[in-house]
Amino acid sequence: MSDLGRFSKINDAFTCEHCHKEVPVSQRTCRNHCPFCLHSKHVDMFPGDRANPCKGLLVPIGYENHSKKGLMIRFQCASCKAMTRNIALLDDNFARDDYDQILALTPKA
Questions:
Q1: Of 21, 52, 70, 91, which residue is most buried, by most CB within 10 angstroms?
Q2: CA dihedral 41, 44, 46, 48 (to 10 degrees)
Q3: Domain residue ranges of the chain, discontinuous segments joined by +
Q4: Half-sphere CA count of 22, side-chain side, radius 13 A
Q5: Phi/psi at 64 (nearest 5 deg)?
Q6: CB 98, CB 89: distance < 8 Å
């Protein structure tokens, strides 16, 4: 099975474990990080599967521009040190990612 076949769409509201703000669902995709502080939680092996036993805090460490997906936020897990990334939600009418906070991160060289 390809990685795309393992994608599970989960677009639930949640409370951020870093800043404790209530995070609404996303308007157009599955939100996996807080739009206010940009932190996330290391819960997935494949998008939406919630199968990762780590459950550590994913700290935003940088950003990059993807040729097809646009602006991506890069994360590092505070527990296991794994690196992940996720699309920035800059046009979400429910809760946009804080663009100034993204730009304050280190761009990928």
A1: 52
A2: -90
A3: 3-107
A4: 2
A5: -150, 160
A6: no
* pTM for this entry: 0.84
6-36 pLDDT per residue, tens? 666 677 788 999 999 999 888 877 788 999 9
Residue that the structure tokens 């157009």 belong to: 28
Instruction: Show the tokens assigned to 80.
Output: 């296991």
Three-state secondary structure call for residue 76 = strand
Pairing assessment for the beta strands 57-66 and 106-107 based on DSSP bridges: parallel
pLDDT confidence of residue 29: 75
Query: Which residue, chain included where needed, has tokens 């474990």?
Result: 17
At residue 62, does pLDDT exceed 80? yes
Structure tokens at 62: 């940088």
